[in-house]
Fold Cytochrome P450.
Amino acid sequence: MSHTPETTRPELFTWEFAADPYPAYAWLREHAPVHRTTLPSGVEAWLVTRYADARQALADSRLSKNPAQHNAHAHRSGRVGIPGERQANLMTHLLNIDPPDHTRLRRLVSKAFTPRRVAEFEPRVQQLTDRLIDSFAERGSADLIHEFAFPLPIYAICDLLGVPAEDQDDFRDWAGMMIRHHGGQRGGVGRAVKRMRTYLAELIHRKRADLGDDLISGLIRASDHGEHLTENEAAAMAFILLFAGFETTVNLIGNGLYALLRNPGQRSLLQESLARGESGLLETGVEELLRYDGPVELATWRFATQPLSIGGVDVPVGDPVLVVLAAADRDPARFAGENTLDLARADNPHLGFGHGIHYCIGAPLARLEGQRALATVLTRLPDLRLAADPSELRWRGGLIMRGLRELPVSFTP
Ligand code: HEM
């Protein structure tokens, strides 16, 4: 029996959808690849689900990142955005600006946040990873989100930025308040964002008088044709590095470990390869995990500044466009065996880090943390088992991110 698209249209943004959005995305890719929908907030937006359209939209300069381009109707009907977005939008940062401002700020931050700085950070990431595993290794059980995936990125970014060790637990608390936003505590997010911003502004002010080797000092020092970041810009930049680099990396580690636990054959191959001292499968494996169940389900907002057509569908000026990375990265037109986890996948131009001028500036750090976290857990806790029925696991219900609330595991101490 054949169904018309109308009769089978899946419901989006339900709890069932949050647990496994992939069947709904497969339906959209096939029947309504550029689809106008009403988001839970009441805002109407276009979802772009095919790989080719998604890649093109991410690089389309007619799609602005500036929320001021948002149409009046959507403004009236509700909020736009990512957790903490209202607060974050009070400042100018890379994810809400367009060229030429974006070009200038991105060039300046790139001078400080270099691949070399990240590579030199590897021993510290390994140390943090081991320290966190030490804290539960004797117990034989753990919640790998709360005890591992959540604290690792926050301590790593704090260290890289140069937040003194004695203040890093404050950031852990604030980040916890931000991530719990998805449980509905919006006031807490505002407070957390405000405290983080105030702290960073003060830290930048102090560091200006006493520059060191850390990334904040690097941001203050960075110059391009005589131009520097202002103190405000440096604070907004430090904030967005924390904000964009925190929950994403929690989800890379959490979703990644979960996918490995659910795919024992692939996990064994990776463990064997690590035991031989190889790194190739770990590297392609992290890319595959970004494709298969990546941390960012939908790329951040874009707004049409001119009438444009995406995949043959006309998008009016001012309409918000959401590129569904999770759908694009499982498009069978680009990825053979799209629903299969294949850690050795060689041809893998996934969109997990985005594409175009807003391509993730933290990708080298995310890869480093993801690789060290997965390799160390699989090596130190070789018989790791999921300690819950997959149907009982809860996913955080944000719009942009995709990640587990908890990941209970057991293992031989
Ligand atoms: C941009 C994903 C980790 C900082 C992005 C974008 C994606 C992304 C998809 C583009 C968004 C868009 O175009 O709408 C991820 C994933 C991560 C991760 C999956 C972890 C696995 C990090 C880390 C940092 C970071 C660790 C920094 C410490 C940023 C910044 C931008 C960005 C600043 C904005 C760049 C720009 O607009 O020019 N990221 N990210 N991210 N990411 Fe990441």
The pocket of protoporphyrin IX containing FE is lined by residues 58, 94-95, 106, 157, 240-241, 244-245, 248-249, 252, 294-296, 299-300, 352-354, 358, 360-362, 365-366 (CB under 6 Å).
